[in-house]
Amino acid sequence: MIIAYTRMSIAPICLFFSREDGWWMAENSEGQQGLVPSNYLKLLDTEHKPSEAPPVAESRSRSLSPRGKELWDKVKAAVRQPSLADVLLGMGAIPSGFRTSTLGSLVSEASSALTSSWVVPKLSSSHLAFRDLHWDYALNKLCSRAVAVTRGFSILGAYNIPNVNKAGGLTVLSHHVRVAVFNKQEVLSNVHTVRAVWITKEPKTWKFAPKVQQGLPPSAFDADCVVRINAMSTDIMILFELCISYRRETTGEEGELSCGWATLPLFEADGKPVISRTLELKVNGGTPYESGIELDPALTGKASGGRFPSLLRSSRTPRLYVKLQYLRRNVMEICNMLPDVIVTSANYVPFISYYRQVMADELLRDRADEQDASPICSPVLTIFSQAVDEPDIMDALREKWSEEHKALRRSFKKNKGHLKAMFKRILLETVYPLVACSQLPTAVWGDENQEQERYAFIQSVKSRSALDWFSDSEMCHKPLNTAELTFAVLSDYCVT
Prior knowledge:
Elements: E1 14-17, E2 23-27, E3 33-37, H1 55-63, H2 65-79, H3 84-91, E4 99-100, H4 102-109, H5 115-118, E5 135-136, E6 141-142, E7 149-159, E8 170-182, E9 192-195, E10 205-207, E11 224-229, E12 237-248, E13 254-265, E14 277-282, H6 307-315, E15 319-325, H7 329-335, E16 342-345, H8 349-365, E17 376-377, H9 379-387, H10 391-406, H11 410-413, H12 416-436, H13 448-461, H14 466-471, E18 486-487, H15 492-495
Helix pairs in contact: 1-2, 8-12, 9-12, 10-12
């Protein structure tokens, strides 16, 4: 709330703190608190600089400890800049339960939320060894690591999800679900994204069917996922945040809104794992750090008492359906090669497993000194981490792998060494040329035309060999950067 400034008579006030923008927090003799312009104030205690809080502020804050939290809440509310979601909410363009996407903000602001940051092994606190990558010298292979939770889940659909107001001037670019491991206080894993199918005939329904999308990478719509977390607590859960990316037509601003969120606990109240079943999850409004907020009160508004009105309100409740399941033994053996904490597509699991095994060979088996922190020249180690967050490039890898795997003899399909070597070769022949190509259109999230152009380009060149690719005079490539082909043991990905 902003109050028009009126000049008052000269009187001493109590200064709590000063700010760099010239507005100071103060309280007058009547107990009224607020921000006042510093150019209308004069410090009576000249021993302290204006940027410091006088001792009276500390003593007064201690004497008013019950009011301290209220004071800071008022200050934060007064100085908080309104977000675009607040503006849209004030215009009535979005339902009252919509917010700026929490997980979307993590993805855009911090690279640590990307899958590429989590597939890389992490150093221990001493920086002398890896805490999630260990070598079995007796069997001469990477040690498998069983964790507390390794489960598969599938997103089946979302229903009764309200839409934005068309009169608000917003163009929805994509519907998607952000997924992460959550403990009610913070996000504990990477953020995995699954695209949803939205059709105008059923505007409040989100479906997950990758086969119906033409010209877009199927991996982006793959709703079958795997989650791993090495912790046992009733607070551990999977967080699903339903999001839309949008463009505001009047200003051209783009952003991401949360259309609600739901959680799937991995443990029962007694500490036992949740059994495999299909669950109906209520979609809440606000952010995952808020509670008791309806997504759209108009959908579940109060009605007269009675059984039928109660059933009617229940049928209008926004909900998300998720199938939780245990993994087969052979899949579990592959998953035990993955990082201790990760959420990813089920189709990416074999490739991340092979990547981790190749990384163990380079970092643990083939190094003369395990404590040597010198950079390692290995394109495979760096290329895969660049591609794992690009669904269309991963689709090219999947298709090439499936094609060659089907042609293998049965004995080779069981030979892990042969499969690992085949993974390295296909990665260099398929992914490396795409990563190094400057003609590949830039990935723009939510821009369907750009995504289709990019996917069409990849499909047109995926069958070419690496030698043919790099020797073609019509193809343009990025300048060679040795840093992009060198894996640094002490990189930010490994240390954090």
